[in-house]
Specification:
single chain, alpha/beta, six-stranded mixed β-sheet, globular
């Protein structure tokens, strides 16, 4: 589904005395995501997770390296077509507060070129999947944090993509909202979709992920199944493994 090779993203940082320093937020990362699996990306704050996901989601162009998207075994190169197969959730997406969740989904469906009957069917399905019925027609500006996050996810999945890229989808949510999103990711995996997401919650990653990628300072420091990661880190506790591998206890959550 997704094949990324040697991704590098270089930024320029302004320092004192008008000096500029270049640094690699992502430094030579390669990874693959297959249909029917959930892959977690974990790492301390500032490790490069969001920059990596933005490049994988075709929202940011890498300084070097390439991202390939395959559908039915064929590579897709058209940018618009690529986005039709990806549902991307950013941690800082701003929604139109005066719209309802239903109106947001309809607007997103129109942007993806869906027909009215398709949109109507998908709105009903997504509402059931994410348990939106209780607030689907309320203005987004009136929703709770968890409801707003589910509204945001709804516009990412209205077009029924094959690949989901979620940047910390459960961060700061209550248990019920978090469970709804976790259940959604599991169901989409069972339906043969691919899910790539970042998280700070070790227990969540351990429960959900078929594979985990740990990054620090823009580089992959470990990758594999949960058991393989634990073996690499020398502990049965994933939090302890994370600390051992990134050597940065102040970034634990």
């Amino acid at each position: 589904m997704l094949d990324a090779n040697n991704l590098v993203k270089t930024f320029i940082r302004n320092e004192k005395h008008n000096t500029k320093i270049s640094f690699n937020a992502v430094d030579d990362i390669s990874l693959k995501v297959e249909l029917g699996e959930i892959v977690g990306v974990i790492g301390p704050n500032g490790a490069g997770k969001t920059t990596l996901l933005r490049m994988l989601g075709s929202l940011m162009k890498p300084t070097s390296g390439e991202v390939k998207i395959f559908v039915d075994g064929k590579q897709i190169s058209d940018g618009t077509e690529i986005k039709r197969h990806i549902g991307y959730l950013s941690g800082n997406t701003k929604l139109y507060g005066r719209l309802s969740t239903r109106e947001l989904m309809v607007m997103a469906g129109n942007l993806y070129g869906m027909s009215e009957p398709e949109i109507e069917d998908r709105v009903a399905m997504v509402s059931k999947i994410l348990n939106l019925d209780g607030f689907i027609d309320n203005r987004i500006e009136k929703l709770s944090t968890g409801q707003t996050q589910r509204a945001s996810i709804s516009r990412c999945i209205i077009h029924n993509p094959m690949l989901y890229i979620f940047d910390e989808p459960t961060l700061g949510l209550d248990i019920l909202s978090s469970n709804a999103i976790v259940d959604f990711m599991l169901k989409e995996k069972e339906a043969g979709k691919a899910v790539l997401y970042s998280t700070h919650y070790m227990e969540e990653a351990e429960k959900l992920c078929d594979r985990i990628i740990i990054i620090n300072k823009g580089k992959i420091v470990a990758e594999g199944t949960v058991n393989e990661i634990k073996e690499i880190g020398g502990s049965d506790n994933l939090r302890e493994v994370f600390g051992n591998l990134v050597k940065s206890k102040e970034d634990w959550v």
